């Protein structure tokens, strides 16, 4: 079938909006009509050419919501008409990772997904007769996509697509990192580095679990008012610190010895170190969420770990793709998570490059493409 898509033909170049061809679902696969998609910083990262797994041409996008239109042979968990979110962390419920119950990082299709292919090693998209790669197993910058059944989370039918799509990455990553990843306890102190589409969701997750202090760190002061609305209690702008003061000492002072939990939501290895070192001696946990490019490395004095700080990280907030995604949609529908305030820009697919430019200028939190 013909579908409308934004194609990443080459790294570092604007996307090309055109008609591409999509093959129907094969065995174990599902055809989804994507009704809305968010644009995440990770799409920009891959488009930049810095992602070692970035393959081109590809159809990017991994934050979508839509309706099942057709299922391949053997699919039993969803049917045409179901409202769904395609998830880049699938959940086969059979691999050692899923069975361990210790991680959300299902291994069933990770290898082919990382090469931009379906589990059988082929692609469903083509453009001008040539194959086009899939992205993160989702490819939501197209109004129809085909994904494996194990990567389809069924959600309640009354959730609006233009909000539910953000659950497919940003909301779940932020809120999930607090509740399923770091498992922040009530009355904790928390420091959040980066108050963008991920960090603000960490803040609302921390508020939800009853953190008593939430320090937000960002060089863009325009992010502070929304962060406050979401639960930030103290704002720290590293760029505005007086000469001789540093972020780590400041957080240690503000939290009375260091934060119980810190989250890096930027993708900057220098700040990852600061986040670790501003965690409390003896028990502080620093959670890396931001994605840093190939070749980037983190470092600290081992003494920081010997003295009881822990370094961890999360993908998709530690959420299990099919089990936990619908729970986050429920949190929104029940008024426990705010998504409306974070969607600051709505565009048709034709204007998708403008959204990437806005992201580069630090304008707005999330742009949603309505198909
Ligand atoms: P964003 O651009 O919306 O937010 C980043 C924020 O960091 C901005 O507010 C910016 O002003 C601030 N910032 C930049 N440099 C800074 C500095 N030196 N000091 C302090 N603040 C600074 O990005 P986002 O969508 O929130 O994504 C954040 C990161 O999370 C990206 O690296 C993205 O790829 C990653 N991510 C990871 C996962 C995961 O599963 N681990 C999921 C989604 C996104
Ligand atoms: N190919 C990238 C991977 C970047 C990465 O860590 N991605 C996160 C999701 S970011 C969503 O916005 C993730 O899920 N990681 C776990 C996994 O298995 O990929 C790179 O830099 O190599
Ligand atoms: Zn994302």
Keyphrases for this structure?
371 residues; alpha/beta; Quinone Oxidoreductase, Chain A, domain 1; Rossmann fold; 2 domains; seven-stranded mixed β-sheet; six-stranded parallel β-sheet; 12 helices; 27% helix; 23% strand; globular; binds nicotinamide-adenine-dinucleotide; binds ligand AHE; binds zinc ion
CATH architecture of the largest domain: Alpha-Beta Complex
- Bound compounds, please? nicotinamide-adenine-dinucleotide, ligand AHE, zinc ion
Q: In the CATH hierarchy, what is the superfamily of the largest domain?
A: Medium-chain alcohol dehydrogenases, catalytic domain
The assigned structural class equals alpha/beta
Number of strands: 17
**Helix and strand string, N-terminal first?**
EEEHEEHHEEEEHHEHEHEHEHEHEHEHE
First-to-last CA distance:
17 Å
Any idea of the CATH topology of the largest domain?
Quinone Oxidoreductase, Chain A, domain 1
Total helical segments = 12
Over all CA atoms, what is the radius of gyration? 20 Å
Main sheet makeup: 7 strands, mixed
| Poorly predicted tracts of residues | none
Strand content: 15-25%
Count of domain modules: 2
């Amino acid at each position: 079938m013909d579908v409308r898509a934004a194609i990443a033909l080459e790294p570092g170049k604007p996307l090309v909006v055109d008609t591409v061809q999509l093959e129907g679902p094969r065995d174990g696969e599902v055809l989804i009509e994507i009704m809305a998609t968010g644009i995440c910083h990770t799409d920009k990262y891959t488009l930049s050419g810095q992602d070692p797994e970035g393959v081109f041409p590809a159809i990017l996008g991994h934050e979508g919501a839509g309706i099942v239109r057709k299922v391949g042979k053997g699919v039993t968990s969803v049917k045409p008409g179901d409202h769904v979110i395609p998830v880049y962390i699938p959940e086969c419920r059979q691999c050692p990772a899923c069975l361990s119950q210790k991680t959300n990082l299902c291994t069933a299709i990770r290898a082919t997904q990382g090469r931009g292919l379906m589990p059988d090693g082929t692609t469903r998209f083509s453009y001008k007769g040539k194959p086009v790669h899939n992205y993160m197993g989702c490819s939501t910058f197209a109004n129809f996509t085909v994904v494996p059944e194990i990567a389809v989370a069924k959600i309640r039918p009354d959730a609006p697509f233009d909000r539910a799509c953000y659950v497919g990455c940003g909301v779940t990553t932020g809120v999930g990192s607090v509740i399923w990843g770091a498992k922040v306890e009530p009355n904790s102190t928390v420091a959040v580095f980066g108050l963008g589409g991920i960090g603000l969701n960490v803040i609302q997750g921390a508020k939800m679990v009853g953190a008593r202090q939430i320090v937000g760190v960002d060089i863009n002061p325009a992010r502070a008012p929304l962060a406050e609305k979401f639960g930030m209690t103290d704002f720290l702008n590293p760029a505005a610190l007086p000469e001789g003061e540093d972020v780590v000492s400041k957080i240690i002072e503000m939290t009375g010895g260091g934060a119980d939990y810190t989250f890096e939501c930027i993708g900057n290895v220098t700040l990852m170190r600061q986040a670790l070192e501003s965690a409390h001696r003896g028990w502080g946990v620093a959670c890396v969420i931001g994605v840093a490019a190939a070749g980037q490395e983190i470092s600290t004095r081992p003494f920081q770990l010997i003295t009881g700080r822990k370094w961890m990280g999360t993908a998709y907030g530690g959420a299990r793709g099919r089990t936990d995604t619908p729970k986050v949609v429920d949190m929104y529908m029940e008024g426990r998570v705010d998504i409306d305030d974070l969607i600051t820009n709505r565009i048709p697919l034709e204007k998708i490059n403008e959204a990437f430019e806005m992201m580069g200028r630090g304008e707005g939190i999330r742009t949603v493409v309505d198909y």
